[in-house]
Amino acid sequence: MSFHDAHSSLQDGVHKLLSCPSPCAMQRYYEQLSTSGLGPGLQVRYIGGEMGKGVFAVKDFNEEEVVLQEPMLVGAQHSSNKVNAMVCSYCFRYVGSLELQLARRLLHQEGDSVGDEEGSEKDMDRDEDVGHYMDEEEERDMTSHMDEDNENCGCERSTKPKKALPPEALAALASGGLQLPHVEHFVLPPVVKCKGGCSEDIYCSDACAEAAWEAYHSLLCSGPLSLCKNIDALSSFKQFADETNDIFHIAAQVVAATILRAWKLENEKSGTVAISSSRGISEATMLKAWEPFAMGYKQLWWQTVALPADVEPSNEQEFRNQMKEIAAHSLSLLKQAIYKETFSPLFTLDVYGHIIGMFELNNLEIVVASPVEDYFLYINDLPPEAKAQAGLVTKVYLDALGDDYTAYCQGSAFFALQSCINHSCTPNAKAFKRDQDNDGQAVLLATRHIRRGEEITISYIDEDSSLEERKAALADYGFTCRCLRCLQES
User: Fold this and answer.
1) Contact 206/295 with Cβ under 8 angstroms?
2) Could you give the CA distance from residue 329 to residue 243 in angstroms, rounded to a whole number?
3) DSSP secondary structure code for residue 238 in this structure
4) How far apart, in whole angstroms, are the C-alpha atoms of residue 215 and residue 202?
5) Is the pLDDT of residue 288 over 80?
6) For helices 231-244 and 247-270, angle between their N-to-C axes, nearest 10 degrees
7) What does UniProt give as the signal peptide span (predicted)?
8) What DSSP character marks residue 419?
9) Do residues 53 and 45 make contact, with C-beta atoms less than 8 angstroms apart?
10) What's the distance, CA 209 to chain centroid?
11) C-alpha angle 258-213-205 in degrees, rounded to nearest 5
C-alpha cells in the first residue's frame, strides 16, 4: 500500500470512529442495554437538534425513588486521593480493614509531614460541575456531625492542627498490630491482588479483578503477565497522567477496552478462546468494539476545556495549544506502550482528543463515603462509658488525622446511560449517594414525582445561581439552556 493510500485509509478509519451513530444504530444499542437489565424503567430516545438524545421514564417514579443505578464503563480514582482512600480499582469499594486504611493515611502523613494535598489542576477540570454526589448541606453535615463538647471521648471533630502520633501508636500502625475497638461493625472485603501481578491496582473481589482484566487492565497492567508490549513506556505514561491530568488514565482505558473487545469479538467469530494480538481485525469488528464510546457526545478536549480563571482571555489560544501539546505527549507514551497497527485510527491525536473531550463533557464525579469517618461517628455515638473507653485507643489517631478524618474516595467515571441525561435548571433527578451505596456506581434519585413519558433531567451546574451565572457556566458545555425556568427568567 502506498503512503497516500495508507494515509487515506487511516483518515477514513478516524472519520468512521468519530461519526455520530445513526438514530437507528443508537436506538438498537440502548435497547440492547435495556434488555441486559440496565436502567429498568428508562428508555433512551433520539430527540434531534443540539440535544441529540435523552433519557425518558417508561414508568412513574416517586420522589426520592432510585431512577438509575449504573456501574461505570470506565473510571479512575484521582491519583491525589489514593493515599486517603484504598479502594477497589474497578468498583471503588473500600477494601482491607479500618486499621489498614488508617495505616495507609497516617504512615504516609508521618513520613512526608504534609497535611495538604496538591491542588486539583491535574484532576478532571469540571468534576465539581457534573453531578457531584454531595450538595452543600451534606458537606456541612459530614464536617459538623461530631460532638465537639465531649473532649474526653477522643472522638470529637478536631479544630486544631494535626498532632504527631506517639511512637507506640506509630509502631502499632507500622507493624500491623493495631486493633481498634468495635471494628466488627465495619468489616471490609479483603484486598485481592491484580491478576497480572502489578502492585498499582487492587480489587475487592475475584469478580472485580477478572472484570477489570478482561475489560481493559490486561493491556494497562505493569505486572509480569501483562499484554502490554512496553512496560517502561506504560509506567512513563501513568506517571505523566498522575503529574498532569487523571483524565488520561480513563482515555487509556477506552483505547485498551476497544482493542480487547475487538479481539474478543474476532475470537468469537473464529471459535478460538485465547486472545491473539497478531490476528488481523476487520474494520467492522473495530467499530463494533468502539460502539459503547461511539454513543458519547464528543468534542476536541483542548477546544472544550474551560479556560481557568487565572488565564487571561488574551492568552486563551496559548493555553489551548498547551493542552493540545500535553495530550499529544500523553498519546505518544501510550502508543509506545500498547500500539497495535490494526487499530491505528484509535491512536491518532484526533480520536484521542475527542475521547478526552467526551469525558470533559460527560464525566461524573464519583464520591464514596469513607468507613473511617463512619467509624469515628459510630464511636462518638456510643454511650458515655463505652465512648470514653474506646477513646483511650482512638483519640491519638483522630488527633493525627485532624479534620481529614472525613476524607473520602474521589474519582471520575463515564457511564453509558447517565451520560445521556440532559441538563435542566429545574431538574427532576439528582446524583446522590445513600448510606447503602458504598461503591462507584452512579445513583440518581427523583427530586419529585416523575410521570411516565417525562424526560429525566439533572443539573450540570449549581441551579441556585442567577440566570447570567448559569449561562456562563453552561457555556463551557457548548449550549444555551432553554428550559422553562431560563425562558421565564429571560
Assistant:
1) no
2) 13
3) H
4) 15
5) yes
6) 140
7) none
8) G
9) yes
10) 17
11) 140
Q: Provide the grid cell at 473.
A: 457556566
Q: Rounded to an integer, what distance in angstroms lies between the CA atom of residue 97 and that of residue 179?
A: 10
DSSP-assigned letters across all residues of 201-217: -EESSHHHHHHHIIIII
Give how far the C-alpha of residue 326 lies from the chain's centroid of Cα atoms, to the nearest Å: 21
Enumerate long-range contacts of 483-488, CB under 8 Å, 24 or more apart. 483/423, 483/424, 483/425, 483/426, 483/457, 484/426, 485/424, 485/425, 485/426, 486/425
Separation of alpha carbons 315 and 323, rounded Å: 13
* Burial per residue of 436-450, b for 16 or more beta-carbon CB atoms within 10 angstroms, e otherwise: ebbbbbbbbbbbeeb
Distance CA 137, CA 122 (A): 27
Q: 212: buried, middle or exposed (CB in 10 Å: 19+, 13-18, 0-12)?
A: buried
Spell 274-313 as b/e; 16+ CB within 10 A means b.
Answer: ebeeeeebeeebbbbbbbbbbbbbbbbbbebbeeeeeeee
Three-class DSSP category at 66: strand
Q: What gap in Å lies between CA 123 and CA 244, rounded to an integer?
A: 8
pLDDT digits (tens, 9 = 90+) for 389-441: 999 999 999 999 998 888 999 999 999 999 999 999 999 999 888 889 999 99
Q: Which residues pair with 368 in a beta bridge?
A: 409
Q: Are 209 and 203 in contact (CB under 8 A)?
A: yes
| Total residues found in the chain within this entry | 490
Q: What angle do CA 164, 189, 438 make, to 5 degrees?
A: 85
Q: What does the block give as the cell for 376?
A: 469515628
Residue with cell 428550559: 483
Q: Which residue has the cell 425518558?
A: 56
Max Cα separation, the chain? 83
Q: What is the reported pTM?
A: 0.87
The Cα 279–Cα 357 span in angstroms is 31
Confidence of residue 267 (pLDDT cuts 50, 70, 90): confident
- CA–CA gap between residue 81 and residue 437 (Å, rounded): 19
3-state percent helix, strand, coil for the chain, nearest multiple of 5: 50, 10, 40
